[in-house]
UniProtKB/TrEMBL annotation:
It is found in: Cell membrane. Residues 31-278 form the ABC-type glycine betaine transport system substrate-binding domain. Gene3D superfamilies: Glycine betaine-binding periplasmic protein, domain 2, Periplasmic binding protein-like II. It comes from Leeia speluncae. It comes from the Bacteria. This is Glycine betaine ABC transporter substrate-binding protein. Pfam families: OpuAC. Keywords: Cell membrane, Membrane, Signal, Transport. SUPFAM superfamilies: Periplasmic binding protein-like II. PANTHER family: GLYCINE BETAINE/PROLINE BETAINE TRANSPORT SYSTEM PERMEASE PROTEIN PROW, GLYCINE BETAINE_PROLINE BETAINE TRANSPORT SYSTEM PERMEASE PROTEIN PROW. Residues 1-27 form the signal peptide.
Length: 290
């Protein structure tokens, strides 16, 4: 009798486990998979999108951390549903050319993005104002022959390699991460040491530090960029309400920087996004309009 009871209990446990597994799988399947990186602008936009989808559309969202190249590949293959940091026409041109036929350009999120190399404002402009000035021996020595970069897969890093070649610079592009790039500036700034870094706008660092872009007369780092949302070919069919919202979703540079500043200062982008959305009902109304 005891054996019979144990067998029944075991069978019930297996059934319960199976049911839970199926429920988890169903929940994961029902979530919009949005690709993210630890770049401030992507975190700001992705968290706003997530908060609106979850609270206004009751649509679960799952963040998937991935390098930018993997994001394009994942969306094109349908493994990811959405990415919100596609920079065109220059920064991600290589990725876009490769995957554009296998994904949907859902829309422009904001305009006015900019890539470049920047230095602290305390470095005399008379000595360093343009990328060409980096070829001066005295300038190179003060910068220790290094340009501080970010993740090696980023479009800005690819453009930076081309820039070094175009300007015939004898400088090393140091691969790192956004956090590593920011750390190099934060270490140099108090002592007014020289540093040059790959940066972009919008970014909260321009609110915290006085920085200036180096002039790029050859335009190898690109001009004004527009930031797109790209979805998988199935995104609209799988999540019609979320797709309709994203077709109307847009922010300004100031919006993105506001969420960035709050998210960076509190280390809580989710709460920063909530504060922004709750403070701008008119924007939410426009995003959800039918």
């Amino acid at each position: 009798m005891f054996k019979s009871f144990a067998m029944k209990a075991s069978a019930a446990a297996v059934c319960t486990l199976g049911l839970l597994t199926a429920q988890v799988a169903k929940a994961e399947e029902a979530a919009v998979k949005i690709a993210t990186t630890n770049w401030a602008d992507v975190l700001a936009v992705a968290n706003v999108v997530k908060y609106v989808m979850e609270t206004k559309l009751k649509q679960p969202v799952q963040f998937v951390q991935a390098d930018i190249g993997i994001q394009y590949q994942g969306v094109a293959r349908g493994d990811l549903d959405l990415m919100v940091g596609g920079w065109l026409p220059v920064t991600h041109a290589t990725y876009f050319a490769r995957y554009k036929n296998d994904m949907e350009d859902v829309g422009v999120i904001y305009k006015g993005g900019k890539n470049g190399w920047a230095v602290p404002a305390y470095i005399p402009e008379s000595q360093l104002s343009s990328i060409a000035d980096l070829s001066k021996p005295e300038v190179k020595e003060k910068l220790k022959g290094t340009i501080q970069g970010i993740e090696p897969g980023g479009g800005l890093m690819q453009a930076s390699e081309k820039t070094i070649s175009a300007y015939n610079l004898d400088m090393k592009l140091q691969s790192s991460s956004e956090a590593g790039m920011l750390a190099s500036i934060s270490r140099a700034y108090p002592a007014k040491e020289w540093v040059v870094a790959t940066v972009w706008s919008p970014h909260w660092l321009f609110q915290k530090y006085k920085m200036r872009y180096l002039k790029d007369p050859k335009g190898t780092l690109g001009g004004e960029e527009t930031i797109h949302a790209f979805g998988s070919k199935e995104f609209g069919k799988k999540f019609p309400k979320a797709h309709a919202m994203m077709k109307k979703f847009n922010m300004t540079l100031a919006d993105v920087e506001a969420v960035e500043m709050e998210g960076n200062s509190t280390n809580d982008y989710a709460t920063a996004a909530k504060k922004f959305v709750d403070a701008h009902p008119e924007k939410v109304k426009a995003w959800l309009a039918k």
